[in-house]
Amino acid sequence: MSDSTPEPSGPQPGPATGAVHDPAAPAPLGLTRTPTGDDGIDLVLERLGDADHLAADGHIEVYEDVHRGLREALDALDTPPGPPAPAPGPHPYNSRS
Fold it and tell me: What is the full per-residue pLDDT of the chain (97 aa) written as tens digits?
């Protein structure tokens, strides 16, 4: 550009539509999520779609929420089914004096 023509600043109109393109505006990534077959996991992963409607600085909250949900699902795999085991303690038939 010449010295007499100032550089444009801010969002610029798109070439064909005249719409303003703001690179900082939220934009869907267009990623598809393949179902895992586990309804709980699929529900947690669907939350990733919320990031498509947020500016980049809002993504961390979504990612942390998804990470927390996946961590809880993994932790649940380590928890045995049924009632919790009794706490270890002195056995009434094994008292030592």
Answer: 555 555 555 555 555 556 677 777 777 777 788 999 999 999 999 998 888 888 888 889 999 999 999 999 999 988 877 787 777 776 666 656 5
Q: How far apart are CA 56 and CA 12, in angstroms?
A: 20
Please, what is the Cα angle at 31 between 48 and 76, to 5 degrees? 40
Domain positions in the chain: 31-78
User: In angstroms, rounded to a whole number, what is the distance separating the alpha carbons of residues 51 and 65?
Assistant: 11
Q: Give CA torsion, residues 34, 39, 44, 48, to 10 deg.
A: 30
Task: Show the beta-strand stretches assigned E in 3-65.
Answer: 12-13, 20-21
Do 25 and 53 touch, CB atoms closer than 8 A?
Answer: no
Neighbours of 59 (CB within 10 A): 15
